[in-house]
Amino acid sequence: MDRSREIELSINRKFRHSLWGPFIRAIKEYQLIQENDRIAVCISGGKDSMCLAKLMSMLQAHSDFPFEVVYMVMDPGYNRANRKKIEENAETVGIPVQIFDTNIFNIANSMEGSPCYICARMRRGALYKKAQELGCNKIALGHHFNDVIETTLLSMFYASQLQAMIPKVRSLNYEGMELIRPLYCVHEDDIIAWARYNDLQFIQCACRFTEMAEADGEGINISKRKEIKELIRNLKKDNPDIEQSIFNSLHKVNIEMFPGYKADGIYHSFLERYNEEKGE
Predict the structure, then answer these.
(1) Are 179 and 168 in contact (CB under 8 A)?
(2) According to the model, what pLDDT value does residue 187 have?
(3) CB within 8 A of 5, min separation 6: which ones?
(4) 51-90: b (≥16 Cβ within 10 Å) or e
(5) Cα separation, 191 vs 41, whole angstroms
(6) For position 218, what pLDDT does the model report?
(7) What's the per-residue H, E or C state across the chain?
(8) Phi, psi of 38 (to 5 degrees)
(9) Is the pLDDT of residue 223 over 60?
(10) C-alpha 91: how far from its chain's center?
(11) pLDDT over threshold 70, residue 100
(12) What would the pLDDT profile of 132-160 be if each residue is shown by its tens digit?
């Protein structure tokens, strides 16, 4: 039996409850895929996007309705070793990737301001553009359950707003394009367990800026996301269900009990509603 078949069987058997189940639940609950969609699965080279690619491949093979999938890898300027690793992993997992080149790393690292912010915006735009060229109407990214709750806390602690990562979003700049997150209900620890069980080694952050920062002792350990991960890890010691509680709270927002909120880009105060109500 070849490796790609073994990896697929591991999802069907050992990880059916932890990976396949939440994956299917997110697709159905949030209506992420429709008949005749053509979806570009965006593979960065990490564990999350490669796991997503394998799940999407299995879903397409067994779906009750037709849809198409393209497995797309954008090379923003990886070194030779990282690019080779991505190609080798795709072959091992059984994913036929299409790779296209950009010089995003060079551009982002040469500009003023935060190279991470600039890089992220440029990468997203490049993915949308290439997906459109390939005739796709959706791009699928590997954001998972933990990304969702971590982003919520990051927004609250460091951006002074309550803002979550939603399961799908329409592009404002690329007409007819939509971004979906099929791993929305999948836990990161379960993706890690799948990778370890199948002895798969993926690239970590391949950004040149991060590599240089780490060499200077100022690397990813000081990132805000790492701080949030550590905070949640500590909270779980007293409350093992803390992650699920945060996730569930995003689906049960009570706008009436907030002093202010934003909708369609417009800020609203609770006073708007409060002053309209009749008091005793």
Answers:
(1) yes
(2) 98
(3) 94
(4) bbbbbbbbbeeeeeeebebbbbbbbbbbeeeebebbeebb
(5) 17
(6) 31
(7) CCHHHHHHHHHHCCCHHHHHHHHHHHHHHCCCCCCCCEEEEECCCCHHHHHHHHHHHHHHHHCCCCCEEEEEEEECCCCHHHHHHHHHHHHHHCCCEEEEECCHHHHHHHCCCCHHHHHHHHHHHHHHHHHHHCCCCEEECCCCHHHHHHHHHHHHHHCCCCCCCCCEEECCCCCCCEEECCCCCCCHHHHHHHHHHCCCCCCCCCCHHHHHHHHCCCCHHHCHHHHHHHHHHHHHHHCCCHHHHHHHHHCCCCHHHCCEEEECCEEEEHHHHHCCCCCC
(8) -125, 110
(9) yes
(10) 22
(11) yes
(12) 999 999 999 999 999 999 999 999 999 89
Which tokens in the block code for residue 161? Answer: 């707003």
How is residue 195 written in tokens? Answer: 């990778």
Strands 178-180 and 168-170, by their bridges, are antiparallel
Query: Worst-scoring range by mean pLDDT, 35-39, 164-168, 200-204, 213-217?
Result: 213-217
Query: What Rg do the C-alpha atoms of the chain give, in angstroms?
Result: 20
Q: How far apart are CA 91 and CA 97, in angstroms?
A: 9
Joined tokens for residue 88? 């080798």
